[in-house]
């Protein structure tokens, strides 16, 4: 198959709750247990139009997937879970899927918000994988926010980096906007975790105004 034909067959499709059993199996294989929901919780969220499964396919073959939460109140898409199937990794599909999601939603929304694992300095091999992921996101013009973000879990809060990929022409994000985004995301995705908003209170002082344009010039 030539490159033009291959590219023309790549497509981003909206999944449904019928796709959840297959996708959940991949989640169990590809993500640490604290980073995704119980099956019943995901099923519950999919009954509403705000939370969605996206399927990335080449013809009829599943290449990768993502779950997203639309937050129109703050003009933001929360990119919750994002992965390429193991047999298709390191072949450029990750960048294509990330770009496809951005193109689909940036226009209606001002940007895409997501989190990524902090680098584990005690595990050198895993740290390299984590660093590659961070470089991947940053190479696609996503910016690491300065907040000490905590992802709500059943047992507490998981320290993560919070990233934002803005729409073209947007070069800053205020503390107020970030607070609104995180609050909406906690309200929808983590309403089942009673201490979620207490976590936000704990690190809210680390959320600050951020200017992406100045940072670009600084790192040239």
List keywords for this structure.
alpha+beta, two-stranded antiparallel sheet, disordered C terminus, globular, 8-stranded mixed β-sheet, disordered N terminus, 220 residues
Account of the 3D structure:
39% of the residues lie in helices and 28% in strands. The strands form 2 sheets. Strands 1, 2, 3, 4, 5, 6, 7 and 8 form an 8-stranded mixed beta sheet that branches. The protein is α+β, with helices and mostly antiparallel strands and 220 residues long. The chain contains 8 helices and 10 strands. Residues 1-5 and 216-220 have low confidence and may be disordered. It is globular, with a radius of gyration of 17 Å. It has helices at 3-9, 20-30, 39-46, 93-105, 124-139, 175-189, 196-203, 212-218; strands at 10-14, 51-58, 61-71, 76-84, 111-117, 143-144, 150-153, 156-166, 172-173, 210-211.
Q: State the helicity in percent bands.
A: 25-40%
| Rg for CA atoms | 17 Å
Low-confidence stretches: 1-5, 216-220
Give the overall average pLDDT: 90
State the total count of DSSP E strands: 10
Quaternary status of these chains?
single chain
Report the biggest beta sheet as strand number plus sense, adding barrel if it closes. 8 strands, mixed
The fraction of residues assigned to DSSP E strands is: 25-35%
Structural class: alpha+beta
Shape: globular
Strand and helix order:
HEHHEEEHEHEEEEHHEH
Distance between the termini: 39 Å
Number of helices in the DSSP assignment: 8
């Amino acid at each position: 198959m030539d490159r033009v034909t291959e590219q023309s067959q790549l497509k981003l499709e909206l999944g449904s709750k019928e796709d959840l059993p297959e996708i959940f199996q991949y989640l169990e294989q590809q993500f640490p247990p604290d980073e995704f929901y119980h099956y019943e919780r995901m099923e519950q969220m999919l009954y509403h139009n705000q939370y969605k499964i996206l399927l990335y396919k080449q013809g009829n073959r599943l290449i990768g997937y993502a779950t997203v939460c639309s937050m129109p109140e703050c003009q933001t898409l929360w990119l919750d879970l994002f992965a390429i199937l193991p047999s298709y990794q390191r072949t450029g599909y990750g960048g294509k899927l990330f770009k496809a999601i951005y193109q689909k939603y940036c226009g209606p929304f001002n940007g895409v918000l997501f989190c990524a694992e902090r680098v584990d300095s005690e595990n050198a091999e895993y740290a390299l994988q984590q660093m590659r992921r961070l470089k991947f996101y940053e190479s696609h013009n996503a910016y690491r926010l300065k907040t000490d973000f905590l992802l709500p879990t059943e047992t507490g809060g998981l320290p993560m980096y919070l990233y934002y990929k803005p729409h073209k022409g947007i070069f800053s994000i205020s503390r107020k906007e970030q607070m609104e985004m995180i609050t909406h995301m906690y309200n929808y995705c983590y309403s089942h975790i009673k201490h979620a908003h207490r976590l936000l209170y704990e690190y809210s002082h680390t959320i600050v105004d951020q200017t992406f344009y100045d940072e670009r010039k600084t790192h040239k």
